[in-house]
Amino acid sequence: MQVYKFGGASVKDAEGVRNVARIVEQSKDQPLLIVVSAMGKTTNLLEKLTKAYFNQEPEAVSYFEEAKRFHEEILNQLFEDTSHPIFDQVANLFVEIDWIIEEEPQDTYDYLFDQIVSIGELVSSRIIEAYLGISGLPSQWIDARNYIHTDNNFREANVNWEKTAESIHASIPALLGKSILVTQGFIGSTSENFTTTLGREGSDYTAAIFASCLNADLVTIWKDVPGVLNADPKWFDATELIPELSYLDAIELTYYGATVIHPKTIKPLQNKGITLAVRSFVDLNQHGTIIKKTNTTLPVSSFIFKVNQVLISILPKDFSFIVEDNFSHIFNVFAKHKLKINMMHNSAVSFSVSVDYDEKNIVSLIKELKQQYDVEFKRDLELVTIRHYNAQTIARVLINKEVIMQLQDNYTCQMLIQPVK
Ligand code: ASP
Ligand code: MG
């Protein structure tokens, strides 16, 4: 069987949904499970809605209207028959947000985020499944929350693999092949049946979870880029497609922040030896990138950029050495405030890290660290990682930049940089 994953960009409008149906039409003779993200920028919009509602700002209502309008327009373009049940199904999903926001918030932000933002995936999967139906493709909508079981770490939930595999084995194999199964990426549920999310851009991970539990032959992530490139075209003009990539290089690239695939996606596939294809939903003649067990090394230097970085330097108040005890305490504080360390460096009397700027979490982190250490920080930095670097590639990214912190080993060079003033 195969698993296809369609991200938000592939279903950003009615034409995108029609294109999904065309792609699925070509593969309809094999057992297929489709994992979809929210349409276009819906997740960002629902995130803004959640923030505004949580802070009791009036914009919450206009964001909500915008989300409904956006989906209504797509529905109107796809379904001529206005009595099709999809119109009610979508309206009913949005009513769930209505119920939440008409009362004052009582729950934590992370919990509310998951209950509200997950509606994006529920709506898009309903629309896509219904559209496959009217296109003559036998399909069935599946609620991922009945299969992806997680803990209650809202917004970044951890998957209970045993329970998840059990649920998937119990019913999905019998459905596969009879119709095309359509489910949501990114979402799961707790043992009390509360909706959770797996972390931003987590739909790839969902595809890998289903693929792993079903021993899929192939997972395909359909993207708006031709495959895995050696740099994000957002930052570089001349990018190159990497036709074949080892699991190890793929893990390393995503670990350092290549956004083409969610970092948690590779491990479950590697464990089962499942090949992952990353290819264009625009140009179906291109094969894109194949990620599999191979000894091929990365053919070109690859660049990963992360903007909006903060350097946080932690120094013991009494000039004592940074020792193991301090490290475990410091790592725990970062985990508690949900900040992921992108780069770290330690010396005898200081420990420095670079993290993504997230105002709320950083303020609370620094407050806690300051009880025990002196803390300094510096904003508006960029982190560049070059895998298979050389002198030219380093020089290329340092044009008009100065280096704040640099680390390198045989394969990888990481530099925290800022524009020269
Ligand atoms: N819709 C979610 C997000 O944008 C999940 C995903 O796209 O993978 O983060
Ligand atoms: Mg997305």
From TrEMBL:
Q: GO molecular-function annotation terms? A: kinase activity
Catalysed reactions, semicolon-separated: L-aspartate + ATP = 4-phospho-L-aspartate + ADP
Q: Which residues form the Aspartate/glutamate/uridylate kinase domain?
A: 2-279
E.C. number, please? 2.7.2.4
Q: In which pathway does it act?
A: Amino-acid biosynthesis; L-lysine biosynthesis via DAP pathway; (S)-tetrahydrodipicolinate from L-aspartate: step 1/4; Amino-acid biosynthesis; L-threonine biosynthesis; L-threonine from L-aspartate: step 1/5; Amino-acid biosynthesis; L-methionine biosynthesis via de novo pathway; L-homoserine from L-aspartate: step 1/3
Which major enzyme category is it?
Answer: transferase
User: What is this protein called in UniProt?
Assistant: Aspartokinase
Do you know which PANTHER family this protein is assigned to?
A: ASPARTATE KINASE, ASPARTOKINASE
List the InterPro entries. Answer: AceGlu_kinase-like_sf, ACT-like_dom_sf, Asp/Glu/Uridylate_kinase, Asp_kin_monofn, Asp_kinase, AsparK_Bifunc_asparK/hSer_DH
The family line of this record is:
Belongs to the aspartokinase family.
| Key words of the record | Amino-acid biosynthesis, ATP-binding, Kinase, Nucleotide-binding, Transferase
| Taxonomic superkingdom | Bacteria
